[in-house]
Amino acid sequence: MSYDCYKMPKQALAQNPEVPHYVVDYRELVAQSKATIEKVYAALGPPVTVEYRAVLAEKDKSAREHKTKHSYSAEEFGMDVEKVQRELAEFYTQYEWESVSTVVQSVQ
Known about the structure:
By secondary structure, the chain is an all-alpha fold. The protein has helices spanning 4-15, 26-31, 33-44, 50-65, 81-87, 89-94, 100-107.
């Protein structure tokens, strides 16, 4: 796994504070895609047209209705979950990602 895909954008943005940006939490995007995208547009400045709002509303509705039967684990992809948590500890803290121990405890 490349940890750079997490670390380098954060470093690049810190070195270039004049670059407009907005960080999206994937959980928020999945749970409330329309509202999240509207926040991104509001933060970065471009207007959201009436037509695009309608598209977002339709996509948001279909996403809420979608139920997947797929389930994946990090181990299936050869990943060491504890190593990932160590390497990305700052992100686990900043974005309040659940650790493996938290997930295991919630399942028991």
